[in-house]
Amino acid sequence: MSNGPIVIKVVALIVLLVATVVGCHAHFNNEFKKTWDDMPGFADECKELSECPSEAIPMERTFVALTIICLILSTFSLDAGYHGLAGVLLLISGILMIVAAIKIDDAIMDATGLGGLSWKLSSATSMLLSTLKSPPTGKDIVSDVKDEIRKELKFYNKLAGGGLAIIDGILYFVAAGIIARSG
Hints:
Blueprint: H1 4-28, H2 31-38, H3 42-47, H4 56-74, H5 80-111, H6 122-130, H7 141-152, H8 155-182
């Protein structure tokens, strides 16, 4: 067996590790999840509204589970079939994380009046806005508030974790092909 499968596997494992760390950090350390878990009545109040991104939390959990499972199993396997399956799972998990980030972002921007719809969860919105680390200043306050909210929601981190998982899914397909050809 040549070094090709080993090299692509190591590269794929490194990308997967980064995707897992970034995605897990974004899932476990964002204000929406904290509010969802810790604020009494928030989840119930949210679920009553059609614009509630209640399905986003399970999507993020699926990302966390699939990336961790693939990371653990990938350290032990050099099988083309496994790498093909892992590629599919990583593509799915990456897409789920990106969709979850967008759903939460859309809902929160609407809740704060920064989006197009009127979705009002006054107590939850106030709590989320109160978590802003630095109050917005400058010429474009609306843009500053959006940026700060997205930082607290770990919006960009979720997009990065999901994007890396998608890229890694493609790497796993390439690895499966290289392993199959060399074996």
